[in-house]
Amino acid sequence: MFAETNLVLKKTFHYIRLILFPIVGGFITTYFVCPACTESASNFSRVSIFSSIIWFILWFGNKYIAVTLDQHISWTETPAKRFVWALLSSVSFTLGTLYLLMFVYNWVTDFDITIDSKTIYYSIIITLALSAFFYGKDFLHNWRKAALDAAVYKKEMAWAQYEALRSQLNPHFLFNSLNVLTNIVYEDPAKAARFIKQLSEVYRYVLDTREKELVLLEEELHFVNSYLYLQQIRFGNNLKVHIDLPNENGQVAPLALQLLLENAIKHNIISLEDPLSIRIFQDNHYLCVANNLQIKHSVNQDNSGLGLENIRERYRFLTPDKVIVEKTNDTFTVKLPIIPYKI
């Protein structure tokens, strides 16, 4: 109850300030801009009311301009363009407001208010002051948000790196890999040698990319081929993977593709009766991983979405395009945005 009352009081004081500020500003402006008006209380009141209306409209008008520009032109990406547009918009809005209000006010009140160079000068000064306030506030807000996003992104990247390393170095993966190696080392030494080479490729890639934000799609696919080789030695024909990528241009988040494959293998039944089929393909500027659904009910489903959420968070800092998840009764598909490579 106290919190609700406190919130109501804060909102009330906020609106009172919004109303009082233009009124006080209008009377102060009249006092300095029109000294002759102080000789007549009637004239002073009329001009002050006119000035207050200007202050009110300029205050909210410039605030609206700042918000609108913020939606279309970024301070961080094109600061010069943003500054020019802000300056031109504010000055144009001020002059247009002055002349329009002068015409309407004179027509309604039958009171002759004229706009001289001094009035225009002070109005533009007021506009620039208001603009400086709003754009300064907007700039500081965006700067603070960028700093927080950078901190969060750094944390997410560190978590992603930890998860990737833990994923590859966990006892189950290592045990399964060594168990497979034990079974083939005497039966087929050549295959065992290749298995060891592919295993070393997996570990090397994880270590090489642990501090990278993006990697070339070609590099990620090369790593995935090594990872899939290990898994297909383990599962044989029960795991079927089809890769259909007409071109390998662009970049992706490191280990994201591997994590999707790992999730598919971890959470689905893989057997002779129920083979798991995974497709890796391209849909416009998305890299897609799709598999048939045959969920293992013994797997802890509470943790099944952590890897996918991790990927979503990483991509949120890399591109405005979102990670897309599509699930039907038969298939599960995840689409990762392919980020263009900038030279």
How would you describe this protein?
With 343 residues, the chain is of the alpha+beta class. It folds into 2 domains: 2-143, no CATH class; 170-337, Heat Shock Protein 90, CATH 3.30.565. Helices cover 65% and strands 10% of the residues. It is built from 9 helices and 7 strands; from the N terminus they run ααααααβαββαββαββ. The protein has helices spanning 2-33, 41-72, 79-109, 117-169, 171-184, 189-208, 217-235, 256-267, 306-316, and strands at residues 215-216, 239-244, 251-252, 276-283, 286-292, 324-327, 331-337. The chain has a 5-stranded mixed beta sheet with strand order 2-4-5-7-6, with helices on one face. A two-stranded antiparallel ribbon has the order 1-3. Helix 6 packs antiparallel against helix 7. The longest helix has 53 residues, at 117-169. The protein is rod-shaped and about 110 Å long. The relative contact order is 0.06.
Identify the CATH architecture of the largest domain: 2-Layer Sandwich
CATH class of the largest domain, named: Alpha Beta
Helix content class: 55-70%
Beta strands, count: 7
The average pLDDT is 76
Distance linking N and C termini = 58 Å
Structural class: alpha+beta
What low-confidence regions span 5 or more consecutive residues with pLDDT below 50?
none
Instruction: Kindly report the spatial arrangement of strands forming the biggest sheet.
Output: 2-4-5-7-6
Give a short account of the largest sheet: 5 strands, mixed
Find the CATH topology of the largest domain.
Heat Shock Protein 90
Label the overall shape: rod-shaped
Tally the helices.
9
The H/E string reads HHHHHHEHEEHEEHEE
CA-based gyration radius:
32 Å
Give the CATH H-level superfamily of the largest domain.
Histidine kinase-like ATPase, C-terminal domain
User: Number of domains in the coordinates?
Assistant: 2
Strand-residue proportion: 5-15%
